[in-house]
Specification:
There is one protein chain. The protein is α/β, with parallel strands linked by helices. It has two domains: about 160 residues, Rossmann fold (3-Layer(aba) Sandwich); about 140 residues, Rossmann fold (3-Layer(aba) Sandwich), CATH 3.40.50.2020. Helices cover about 30% and strands about 25% of the residues. It has eight helices and 14 strands. It has a seven-stranded mixed β-sheet. Strands 1-4-5-6-7 form a five-stranded parallel β-sheet. A two-stranded antiparallel sheet has the order 2-3. A hairpin with a 5-residue loop joins β2 and β3. α1 packs across α8. It is globular and about 60 Å long. The model has no long low-confidence stretch (mean pLDDT about 95).
Length: about 300
């Protein structure tokens, strides 16, 4: 453990931050977040960070206060003469706003990148960005980790590969599903969907043969679970023997939990990049703490992290 490394977190996901620090061999530093009656808050460190490598662990899930906490911690560390300021963002909020797909729309992920750099961040560590090109929005190094590093060994240990087929819940996920299927030497299926509006699916069909197969749907983000559950139900209708799902970021907003419970999904495997709002017998959590801690350790010792990327 390097003496110049310090870990801090806001209120977004303290449990994950504590686990990352623990696996690294450290503890969380003391940071004070004072809130005023009107909702405004201020942040200051209760210990010195001068000349230190400061790792600020904070998923930027809604509400926007989580992002603002991270920005204020970065600014406070910079003004306190930290040597390096590394934002560890297991879930990068606004990542779905990565391009101008219609007139007069904001590119939220680029705006967030600008704000992080303006605050004084010197490096960003994140996981499974919704769009890989978001890395190019930054003018500082970005270490983009992949959940496949922990998902693929899990699949090998817990699924019967002889009867397994990898599926994408929509055409946007075909690249990810194809990478999984090629690495594991399995067949792939794709759900083709047409949307009526955001979070509203008009119709869906399956491309590929899933009859009598154990289907594993892989995705990066599950929000309202509309696409996922419709895909699972359609796979079952097409004759699948069982349907499981694997997702990095379990946003699970709105009717997601109800949809999940009423769906044909037997098991949903997720990471802990986002704290779950409810418990469910169908949900199994795999922690990313060890992966993040090992990457941080390698960065501090100036070692390559390429071995952390399976696909």
């Amino acid at each position: 453990m390097s003496k110049r490394v310090k870990f801090f977190t806001g209120t977004s996901h303290r449990a994950l931050a504590e686990n990352i620090a623990l696996v690294y061999g450290s503890v969380l530093g003391d940071v004070n977040i004072t809130r005023f009656s009107d909702g405004e808050f201020t942040i200051y460190f209760n210990e010195t960070v001068r000349g230190q490598d400061v790792f600020l662990i904070q998923p930027t899930t809604p509400p926007s206060d989580n992002l603002m906490e991270l920005l204020l911690m970065i600014d406070a560390a910079r003004r306190a003469s930290a040597r390096k300021i590394i934002a560890v963002i297991p879930y990068f909020g606004m990542a779905r706003q990565d391009r101008k797909d219609k007139p007069r729309v904001a590119i939220g992920s680029k705006l967030v990148a600008n704000m992080l750099m303006a605050a004084g961040v010197t490096r960003v560590i994140t996981m499974d960005l919704h769009a890989d090109q978001i890395q190019g929005f930054f003018e500082v190094p970005v270490d983009h980790l992949y959940a496949s590093t922990i998902f693929l060994p899990y699949i090998k240990e817990n699924f019967d590969l002889e009867n397994l087929i990898i599926a994408a819940p929509d055409t946007g996920g075909t690249k990810r599903a194809n990478a999984y299927s090629k690495y594991l030497g399995l067949e792939m299926a794709v759900c083709y969907k047409q949307r009526k509006a955001a979070n509203q699916i008009e119709n869906m069909m399956v491309i590929g043969d899933v009859r009598d197969k154990d289907v594993l749907i892989v995705d990066d983000i599950i929000d309202t679970a509309g696409t996922l559950t419709k895909a699972a139900d359609l796979m079952q209708h097409e004759g699948a023997r069982s349907v499981s799902a694997m997702c990095t970021h379990a946003v699970l907003s709105g009717p997601a939990y109800e949809r999940l419970e009423n769906s044909e999904i037997d098991k949903l495997i997720v990471t802990d990049t986002i704290p779950l709002q409810k418990n469910s017998d169908k949900i199994h959590i795999i922690s990313v703490a060890s992966l993040f801690a090992d990457v941080i350790r390698r960065l501090e010792s100036h070692k390559s992290i390429s071995s952390k990327f399976i696909i």
